[in-house]
Amino acid sequence: MVLDSIETAPREDLRQVQDDRLRETVRNAYENVAFYRETFDEAGLAPADVESVDDLSKLPFTTKEDFRDTYPTGMFAVDMDEVIRIHASSGTTGKPKIVGYTRDDLDVWTDAVARCLVAAGVGPDDVVQNAYGYGLFTGGLGLHQGVEELGATVIPIGGGNTQRQVELLVDLESDVLTCTPSYALYLAEVADDMGIDIRDLPLRTIIFGAEPCTEPMRNEIEERLGVTGIDIYGLSEIVGPGVSVECEAQAGLHVWEDYFYPEVIDPATGDPVEEGEEGELVLTTLAKDALPVLRYRTGDLTTLNYDTCKCGRTCVRMDNITGRSDDLILVRGVNFYPSEVESVVLEFDEVAPHYRIDLRREGSLDRVEITVELVEGFDGSSADLEDRIETRLSNVLSFTPDELNLVAYGSIARTEVGKVQRVYDHRGR
Ligand code: DLL
């Protein structure tokens, strides 16, 4: 099932739509946003130089810093009286990135999310419990409006309130839950404590996003909750959730390319990578009026696959994002991603899917401390387990952590609201 015919349209037809919309987006950005006018002028470019998506590579990138420098609304292309909604990124450092939507922009976003829900197998008869935070974060209202558009039932519970969440899953027989992957696992733990096994409930799908989730973590969620886990991606600067989503084939996330144009670049050089190679995702909006964004460097690492999916959709698929270019941890000449630690931790049945990475400085040396939780009721030899985990970590990461702590089940704080934090850098740079 697809919601809009463009999802399965021949790529030449899609291309026509993209080219038309890009020209309009560039015109809007140049005429109405001082930042874009200046960057075009500096690069010696005129809007007419961009006739098709092939010309995009002529344009400079837009970065997070550009949003910060123009805080709060300097990137807006319309007057505030045309803006009917404001959201903001959930960045933990510096000023948030403020984003705005006209009524047409909200329609585009709503349609993008409704397409995601259909791709995930959600229908008008379903009850969707929305546990993304409502408010400035785009997750709550973003999913909410998509569910209503589809005519399914939305339960707008938002983040936290976990016992109540479990009660509602039982009492309202929710078919679908939308939340972060870390929260899905926390919910299962709270349900256990309440004597409820989520696998026995009607819940069949979790639409998770806003945080990276490795394949082993997805398997853990699927097994623990007895559901299909569908990955949804998006970011405030581009629209919020709904830029891309997996279909039921779970074989990459379909990007709604008539609304968002994706490129993948080498983060070091800014050059495009070959198709199928990993790099940083760069997105251009094609149908937004209040906040047109050209070549935005998302920081998220992925690859693109242009093969038609077995679901029939012709739009490009991106790989699940398991890291950001700025997540890379550099310690004593080696580097690794937190997702690599996650994959190792989840290989061991004796440990729970909760971990944290602490980076400290002692004298002039950096130390890496990894803490993982034992499963509930663990009664084996923790020295032997520690050796085995350490060996795997050294093989995968090519270095041995300075300290590996195995701690009792429940020792690592859970995240009830917002995004989980797994890396704590105490080095104070
Ligand atoms: O997290 C929007 C969202 C809400 C997406 C609900 C999915 C579900 P921001 O707070 O602006 O927006 O954060 C965007 O979160 O650049 C990624 O680094 C990360 N992210 C979002 N979705 C995924 C995902 C929302 N499915 C930033 N997998 C992005 C991995 C994700 N990372």
From TrEMBL:
Keywords: Ligase, Nucleotide-binding
Entry's Gene Ontology molecular function annotations: nucleotide binding; phenylacetate-CoA ligase activity
KW Nucleotide-binding (keyword) present: yes
Domain (AMP-dependent synthetase/ligase): residue spans on this chain: 58-283
Signal peptide: none
AMP-dependent ligase C-terminal domain: residues covered: 333-427
Transmembrane feature ranges: none
Pfam families in the cross-refs: AMP-binding, AMP-binding_C_2
Pathway assigned to this chain's UniProt record: Aromatic compound metabolism
PANTHER family (alphabetical): BLR5969 PROTEIN
Designated name of the protein: Phenylacetate--CoA ligase
